[in-house]
Amino acid sequence: MPHVLVTGAAGFIGSHTVDQLLAAGHRVTAVDNFRTGQRVNLARALHSPACELVEADVSAEGVLAELVKAGKPEAIVHLAALVSVPESIRDPELNFRLNVVATQRVAEAARAGGVGRVVFASSAAVYGDAAPLPAGEDAPKAPISPYGAAKLASEALLLGHAAAYGFTVRCQRYFNVFGPRQDPGSPYSGVISLFARRYREGAAVTLYGDGGQTRDFISVHDVARATVRAATAPGLASGTANICTGRGTSLREVLAVFQRLYPGAPGPRLAPPREGDIRHSRGDPAAAAVALNFRAAVPVEDGLAELAAGE
Ligand code: UD1
Description:
- With 311 residues, the protein is an alpha/beta fold.
- The chain has a seven-stranded parallel beta sheet with strand order 3-2-1-4-5-6-11, with helices on both faces. Strands 7-10 form a two-stranded parallel ribbon. A two-stranded parallel ribbon has the order 8-13.
- The protein has helices at residues 12-23, 63-71, 85-90, 92-113, 146-165, 191-201, 220-232, 251-261, 286-292, 300-309, and strands at residues 3-7, 27-32, 51-55, 75-78, 117-123, 168-174, 176-178, 206-208, 214-215, 217-219, 239-243, 249-250, 269-271.
- Helix content is 39%, strand content 18%.
- The chain is globular, with a radius of gyration of 19 Å.
- Strand 1, helix 1 (12-23) and strand 2 form a beta-alpha-beta unit.
- Helix 2 packs parallel to helix 4 (92-113).
- It folds into two domains: 3-177 and 217-246 and 282-298, NAD(P)-binding Rossmann-like Domain (Rossmann fold, 3-Layer(aba) Sandwich), CATH 3.40.50.720; 183-214 and 247-280 and 304-309, UDP-galactose 4-epimerase, domain 1.
- Uridine-diphosphate-N-acetylglucosamine (UD1) is lined by residues 85-86, 176, 188-191, 194, 206-208, 213, 215, 251, 274, 276-278, 281.
């Protein structure tokens, strides 16, 4: 049974990735420090005898290397991160440790442990706010936050190690991921997680700007599928791919779907555009189709209906 070590396993994307790995018959070592990950996200996974949970901080020297030496996974899926852009701006040193140093630990653990493949959770944030639409992987990279910079630096670290030491790295630039288990805990959480909670509570959402802004919203089920494929599909070469739908959805469209799902809900509270907001963001999904044979399959409307129905 192939063995995959997942860092950030109790997080939003991590826990769905663990669920899909187990469903596909893989053995999983699920690593998390529970800084932002939640045990409850792994509730289902931990019923499986094929899933082992390890509480550990992967940015600490040697911790991951030891786990890899002991468990000999075929692949590492590195999803552990400081995930909030505003937090990276408030605390750039912490961002450096959790988003860059931790990646170096992964590269070193892969090298020392002879791991064949590493999958890395990168982000559309590497493009900044000036990418052409849709953004292809070769678009200029101009991160505008410590978070985006750390993701770009991490891609380079891993790809350089992969070339030098002969393992495979797949960097996955996730766009605006949404779905069950996304934490709506801060005003800067993903807009769909915030909207879903407000609608569930019967409270009004806040709409910044005119709602004409668009994002490439992709369901976490699709993202987990792309991640499992990158970790386990035979014969992949190192490379980088957007994980996106290629389709822009406006906030007005998102609100219209929620209004249909919650017919009695109050309309949105209007607020001025959020400072630093990008008007449009959309990725080119072609490289993932070629390299991973991956195409997003969940329409945004279906993903929103799933949220309204509960998990
Ligand atoms: C993402 C980051 C954000 C960062 C920005 C940098 C996440 C979840 N967000 O934002 O931290 O600053 O990239 O480019 O990773 N919106 C509302 N009402 C709300 C919340 C959001 O109208 O209650 C709007 C926002 O103003 C924005 C859109 O929804 O126009 C999407 O917001 P968000 O989900 O935060 O994604 P990004 O804008 O891509």
